[in-house]
Amino acid sequence: MVPPARDRQTLRRRVGAFIRARRRELGLTSGDIVRALGYKHLASVWKLEKGLEGLPTKRVYAWADILQVPRDAFFRFVTGEAGRMEATRSSHDGAGERLTLAEAELLADYRRLPSTFQRRLRKTVQEFETLARSEVRRRS
Q1: Residue-wise pLDDT tens digits, 44-91
Q2: What is the DSSP letter of 80?
Q3: Dihedral of CA 86/90/96/99: which sign?
Q4: Quick one: three-class SS letters along 20-64?
Q5: Who's near 42: CB < 8 A, 6+ residues apart?
Q6: Which string of DSSP letters, residue by residue, matches 64-89?
Q7: pTM of this prediction?
Q8: Tens of pLDDT along 3-26?
Q9: 82 SS3 class
């Protein structure tokens, strides 16, 4: 069942306000978001933050990664299943540290790759890890 237009507008505004507050909390600019998520115009982010447009569901996980919030909780918030969103750290990013902009962009780029290329990239990363470990041992 599709919620009434008034409820959708309220949800878009609530999500937009959260996105804007979280982006600022992380020290990210709208331009950082545009570059990391592949938007073409700053206005796209502005419209989301103002609640003029809703967040496309196909981009929810990428936004959760950039905003460094748990993916599933953010999805429930964006779809209206959850009334609130706490800006807590995502459990998927390891040691609990914030991603740098470069790391967030790399993650966004990775997520846009087809799964076959994601697998190849993970295998390459494992090879680089092995090389790095052997280099450290060689220097010791």
Answers
A1: 999 999 999 999 888 999 999 999 888 888 998 898 887 666 655 444
A2: T
A3: negative
A4: HHHHHHCCCCHHHHHHHHCCCCHHHHHHHHHCCCCCCHHHHHHHH
A5: 30, 31, 34
A6: HHHHT--HHHHHHHHTTSSS----PP
A7: 0.61
A8: 566 788 888 999 999 999 998 988
A9: coil
